[in-house]
Amino acid sequence: MSSPERTWKTIESGPHTYQEALHPVVRKNYGKWKYHEIPRPGVLKHVAESGDAIYTVRAGTPRQDTVDMVRRLCEIADRFSDGHLRFTVRNNVEFLTPNPDNVEPMIKELESMGFPVGGAGNCVSSVSHTQGWLHCDIPATDASGVVKSMMDTLYHEFKHMEMPNKVRLSTSCCSINCGGQADIAVVVKHTRPPRINHEHLSMVCELPKAVARCPVAAIRPTVVDGKRSLMVDEAKCICCGACFGACPAMEINHPEHSKFAIWVGGKNSNARSKPSTMSIVAHNLPNNPPRWPEVTDAVGRILTAYKAGGRPWERVGEWINRIGWKRFFEETGLTFDEDMIDSYRHARTTFNQSAHVRF
Amino acid sequence: MEEAKGAGSCGSHQCGHSGGGCGDKFLNPTPMLDELENGPWPSFVGGFKELAERTKKPMLRGVMDQLEYSYNTKMGYWKGGLVTVDGYGAGVITRYSMIKDKIPEASEFHTMRIQPAPGLHYNTEMLRELCDIWEEYGSGIITLHGQTGDIMLQGIEQDKVQECFDRLNEKGWDLGGAGAGMRTAVSCAGPARCEQACYDNLELHLHALRHFVSQLHRPEWNYKIKFKFSACPNDCTNAIMRSDLAVIGTWKDAIQVEEPAVKEWIEKNGVDALVNQVINLCPTRAISLENGGMKIESRDCVRCMHCLNVMPKALSPGKERGISLLMGGKNTLKVGVNMGSLIIPFMKMETEEDREAFMELVEEIIDWWDDNGLDHERIGESIERVGLKQFLEGVGIDVDINQVARPRDNPYFKAKY
Ligand code: HEM
Ligand code: SF4
Ligand code: SF4
Ligand code: SF4
Ligand code: SF4
Fold first, then answer.
1. A139 and A205 part of one domain
2. Is any Cβ of chain B less than 8 angstroms from the Cβ of A85?
3. Which ligand 1 atom sits closest to the C-alpha of A244?
4. What is the model's pTM?
5. Could you tell me if B128 lies within 8 Å of chain A, comparing CB atoms?
6. What CATH number belongs to B179-252+320-416?
7. Which CATH number is B256-316 given?
8. Cα distance from A276 to chain B (closest Cα, Å)?
9. Distance, CA A132 to ligand 2 centroid (Å)?
10. Taking every annotated instance into account, which residue ranges of this chain make up the domain Nitrite/sulphite reductase 4Fe-4S (chain B) (predicted)?
11. ipTM score assigned to the predicted complex
12. What is the Cα–Cα distance from A332 to B280, expressed in whole angstroms?
């Protein structure tokens, strides 16, 4: 769209610059930090080669924020951290101050405003999540609501460092999985092939694009009522929903046939074991707003077992590698079933190519 | 409009079963969403309500009604479209309501993706400017941050987008990526506040995204491509799985050891902890117990970061620092989850020339992808389909044993003899 009365000429500046956003003590010691400690949950102390120290107070946010909330965070930053703050990739806010006397009053203030202080060290940090019903055009569920429900039950684990290692969570409202790989991930799984809205399709769909999007070549061109349309080979279809992203007439979402699956063992850090992808451990959980109790229950079971059985520094996937999947299912009370056997490309790499057995 | 008034004065949908509370309130009852105000975690519903009651923006009432409707019907009701600003082809995510006949107040609810400073650092002046402009033109709802790394300003009508953008742009903000082009990047805290940082990821991030700013605003490639910059192998930005170009800090020489701090750690934690939590967990058994202390055999170390994480005061990355480039990380669609794989084991990243050399390399890589990739194919998928060998040849990157976990295990190949 063009507006003739425009007076401003666009500057394609890219990301906002960062220097002026850094606390002066950060700027002074940039690249010269020596070590850090975690004096209490939610607080980091970084010490520089120069001897300067900076304290970080970390707090949880809903991620789905408002200008009012952001202005409140700014007030905290002006009062306690010289007007500087940053965010983490897990939607936590951080306030950096060189003054140790600011730490306790800042924590009090944040908590009284409803922002829990925590999320550092060996704890459950907040959830990397997506848009859901609030704003995506293809979601089968909400994101912020699932996260809120989950974090309510994990509040204690956010504020205390009682886990063997960090726990990263994610949620996603379709199997594109924008939330990403995590120690424990909650991802939508459709259970029925898309229903095709033929009338709508002829108006909105670029047919070859939708055909090309299908990972198992289940979509074929056809003619319906004299108009070019598409059909789905339901025996082949794996209900992934990819076609819906390309064509809104491939109606995959359904209140009853869009369920949840739970995945575990994703790890991006290179520490100890190589980075690993997730495995499915529960599926067919109902999409049950506004609180999704079945989902929070399953996540809770996994975390309880990991907390009790994990050794220091073991991430969820590493803990499972040690105790084995058999014991994982026993200790969490979840059930392994035939659909958890991989049937997609490179499936053999997930088979047990050894005589190692657990009884 | 009549319907809008109806909704506002509680004449229409869902108000029926509220049993009061409608009277002087601006918002309609949202019993499902209200459940999400319970519990200790900060509530986005509470936040939205506060904002709506203060600003009385009808769009906010509409979006809450629509969300409540979704919670009841378990379906989503947004569809995409096309809205941009002058000269750009991306950066605004368009949302039109599919039920605007029921809930007209949120018939348009577009998102502006805004690129934050690398590392998500702010001062309050920047943030307040952003809030003030956003409140003037948009709904006042902000996501900090989207998984793509953007600030997401959610909820604006098409006819306000250009002016809002101009005001933001005057203050140094620019739109983020969308579509088949360069995307907004993500960086960890990096040298600003992390002793593990092995390169200046914030500077490289700024440099790289400015370099590709045109392709970010005017997508013209096969598909999206994303950078993520983690300043050490702890990879706090999830680069290996979530970016096509994962730039991960590393070092070449020996881990720096400060003996007195090692001693102090052992005195505090004991030899059992040294053995069980450090030595035994080294993936390549590079560490051994020696005279009650630890000895690292540098040639065996793969720079996994574990021992440095456990003993940050005693151990630090070596002095010869730089980056590794991994490529091809992506999620499910459509060949399955792909982890990035190592392409460039080491590159220095200290000077402006180093950054320029890196940009030249990335240009070569993207040119290759532009020529060899298929429509809607991420670069990792192109490399897998065409072959890593062919990719390396095409771009002119030296073959290196670090690019594979092990040599091939099948004999079917053709070689030049
Ligand atoms: C209609 C199609 C799509 C829409 C509307 C869409 C929307 C989005 C949105 C809104 C986000 C940010 C989520 C957040 O942080 O709240 C996102 C991120 C993401 N999307 Fe999509 N997406 C679409 C297609 C895809 C496809 C086809 C793929 C995969 C091939 C994909 C993979 C991802 C991934 C992996 C992320 C996280 C990115 C990151 O961490 O950098 N999306 N998408
Ligand atoms: S996971 Fe799917 S539904 Fe959710 S935001 Fe991403 S693309 Fe949209
Ligand atoms: S849901 Fe997936 S498998 Fe089924 S037709 Fe669509 S793209 Fe193909
Ligand atoms: S990736 Fe490394 S350098 Fe960056 S914040 Fe994490 S530990 Fe620090
Ligand atoms: S960094 Fe990792 S591989 Fe290297 S010595 Fe430490 S634990 Fe071993």
1. no
2. yes
3. 1
4. 0.93
5. yes
6. 3.30.413.10
7. 3.30.70.20
8. 8
9. 6
10. 179-397
11. 0.95
12. 27
